[in-house]
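Crash report, auto-generated. Payload:
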Amino acid sequence: MCTGLSVNKLLIQGKRTMSSLFEIVEQGSIVSPRGFKAGGLHCGLKKTTRNDLGVIVCERPAHTAAVYTLNIFQAAPLKVTRESVAVEQKLQVMLVNSGNANACTGEQGERDAYAMRDAAAAAFSVEPHLVGVTSTGVIGELLKMDKVLPGIANLPQHVHNRDGEDFCQAILTTDLVKKEICVRVQIGGQSVHIAGAAKGSGMIHPNMATMLGFITTDANIGGAELQSLLNEVTDVTFNMITVDGDTSTNDMVVAMASGLAPYEPLNERHPDWTAFKAAFYYVSEYLAKAIARDGEGATKLIEVEVRGAISDESARAIVKTIIGSSLVKSAVFGADANWGRIIAAIGRAGQPVNPLTVDIRMGDIVVLHQSAPVVFDEDKAAAYLKGDLVKFEVNLNGGEGVAVGWGCDLTYDYVRINAAYRT
Amino acid sequence: MCTGLSVNKLLIQGKRTMSSLFEIVEQGSIVSPRGFKAGGLHCGLKKTTRNDLGVIVCERPAHTAAVYTLNIFQAAPLKVTRESVAVEQKLQVMLVNSGNANACTGEQGERDAYAMRDAAAAAFSVEPHLVGVTSTGVIGELLKMDKVLPGIANLPQHVHNRDGEDFCQAILTTDLVKKEICVRVQIGGQSVHIAGAAKGSGMIHPNMATMLGFITTDANIGGAELQSLLNEVTDVTFNMITVDGDTSTNDMVVAMASGLAPYEPLNERHPDWTAFKAAFYYVSEYLAKAIARDGEGATKLIEVEVRGAISDESARAIVKTIIGSSLVKSAVFGADANWGRIIAAIGRAGQPVNPLTVDIRMGDIVVLHQSAPVVFDEDKAAAYLKGDLVKFEVNLNGGEGVAVGWGCDLTYDYVRINAAYRT
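Recovered output after restart:
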């Protein structure tokens, strides 16, 4: 038991130890935790026939925690979900549509979001305040409610506990692959599941929350404990990815706990708290990395670790500056070991850094030591950078602060996708 | 006389009036101000035969003002130039090389920068502290001093007052076009010139100064007045452009005044101060816009104006967030009137904004009024966005703060250029 250990320290110092605390459920899904079902269908918001309406349903009101974008222009559904959660910190039905973000849609947009909530409450026979609503897609266009409302009415027939496939398909926009994970952890001698699903893949530079993330668990945990854990974990997982530096209007991560696992309520004093926390962190990190890897146009996942900063916060700011640099991202796309762009990013991050003591490694290749260039094998570096996972390790040698973050390369396809997204 | 008027207010409120205060010299160049010569040659740092070494020389020590990058990893030549200017706030020889930034090159890099200064002092028979040095190009590689030093020795033979062509060619890296401007203004009944030259075009997100900018004038102005004016003007010109959000290690703007214009010294109490300031502003804005327009891979100049912010500083932060957004830049490249990306950028700028009172115009097309979407003609908008100058006007309706900034679109060519810059 080490309840005081921050997730950040867990992450950096004990990643290998952590993974022994839980196991990955190979065929697991968002509905593996007891009490959850999910489904999806095509109601007509997307031009293709892909699913564009999805739902997660719990057999009883689930303790719920949520984090929302800090973008000032929060989309209407976020307001509605926030109101719902505020009533008793529980949700039973989590509704989502893709193809339209219902953001910057004024009063009509709010009325539409409330109408979606009411329709889902009616369809699933629950109180409106037990329904959360979230949307993703184009900003500034009104929802086609003549498509959405009949779709919601049909949803109950499409809900099942077979897998999360229909739901996961319903939340994708420019994503290429679904992002879903399930782990199992022993709490009080009983199996508990934590599962998650998420979407990216553009306007990804989360601040307090990311584009859509959904976590389900059958853990017996209260809303306050769940919210506290979600806050802590989000800061070092979803908030540590960037695709393009743009923080969306619709970012939200929701965690729902059915409480159906049969043991004493979980909290920081529980002997298995660390295992649960490690498993919860793993689910969040997995989804965050999956979003970064599937960033618009991306061919690679970039992982940046900064050590030796004056604080964890400072390390995080530097990590985000490096993974957000268009020049670093382009160099990775071109497999160019241009570490000068990394050093330039560190230097403009607005953090205290000693310009004489910086070490940089690309994989296991040292390219900078004590701020002086190290001669390295360019061919070996290029070969490393051509892989689909590129790691940069920076040691500032100036303190104990550490952070890890994830991004992706900047490619022709990012430009292609975003030059013609709306039209 | 309106000496208290800030450049920002001059800019926004009196742009048309301003331009009547001075005239553009069509064939003018960096050597049009009395007392200045310039030149350039190819010494062997660039792989092509393009000029890679340039110099501006004044016939006597010129009052000099300079602003430098805030990147922590300032390149060696900046340290040397700063030391030179500190002695008597004068420079007579301003040396520049392209093809190698001499940044992150450790103690050897510093020795090389001092050696360049000493060589130029010897070649032009001036004291070393009257020589400034600046470099641009790849970070982290040592300069080929066996090319640079003979080049400097040859420079005096290549210096002339015909035009700035050789010098302007010598400062380019990935730039496609030279950036040069000259204006004439009447001070005390006498003609005074202000001229400038600059380079971009990647790693452009200046903070206190930009990639290289050189301003010459024959105005009779002291170093303190020139520095104060340069600081004020840089904040609203060079510091208001972004190509890729990356602040370079080598940014510097230098202004040199030969003082050869025959009239009383210029200062804020001089009756023609406003005219001089307007002309100086115009030169800086021209160069800043030219850098943005020639950003790596750019096909368009984007101008963003924000009004109605709580302060000018707040407006500036919002402008920079919009012009720095990869999604906004990609949409402009694709001529997609996707104003949702502008609103998302405003909302994540970290500034106080009322989410209900925002107006947005693209050219003269209103797309958002009081934060509600306005139906507009998509074809007309697309036609406007296909032009080579795209203006976005945002009114937050929340105060008196105003700012204007410039950027460029994000294109396939930006990715191509930066995926293979070094190799």
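Post-recovery validation: The mean pLDDT of chain A is 88.
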